[in-house]
């Protein structure tokens, strides 16, 4: 699938994300990088917290904390480049940030149970 026609047909006003990576697209002198939208962005941090806090079930607010955390890591520079997610090359930092936010939310909701190993 080629995404260059999308950019041309919308005069560069396309928001696009896919489960697989695509090459950057240039339109009218501006380069946009298509977002790779897959579960890898959230599963590492979210899964880590669920294991750490011994949660059998998660609360909707914990999932909202994941979304908020991921969205908060997108900068104005990312938006200017056409990114709707932070660069995947920063996945370790992204996951740690998500884990922190979800752990705080789990604790706030009384869902954090300390595990004795």
UniProtKB/TrEMBL annotation:
Short name of any one Pfam family annotated for the protein: Malic_M
Annotated GO CC locations: chloroplast
Domain Malic enzyme NAD-binding: 1-107
GO process annotations (BP): malate metabolic process
InterPro entries, A to Z: Malic_NAD-bd (IPR012302), NAD(P)-bd_dom_sf (IPR036291)
Keyword Transmembrane helix: yes
Residue ranges crossing the lipid bilayer per the database entry: 40-58
Name of protein: Malic enzyme NAD-binding domain-containing protein
Keywords associated with the record: Membrane, Transmembrane, Transmembrane helix
Superkingdom to which the source organism belongs: Eukaryota
UniProt-listed PANTHER family: MALIC ENZYME-RELATED, NADP-DEPENDENT MALIC ENZYME 3
GO molecular function: malate dehydrogenase (decarboxylating) (NADP+) activity; NAD binding
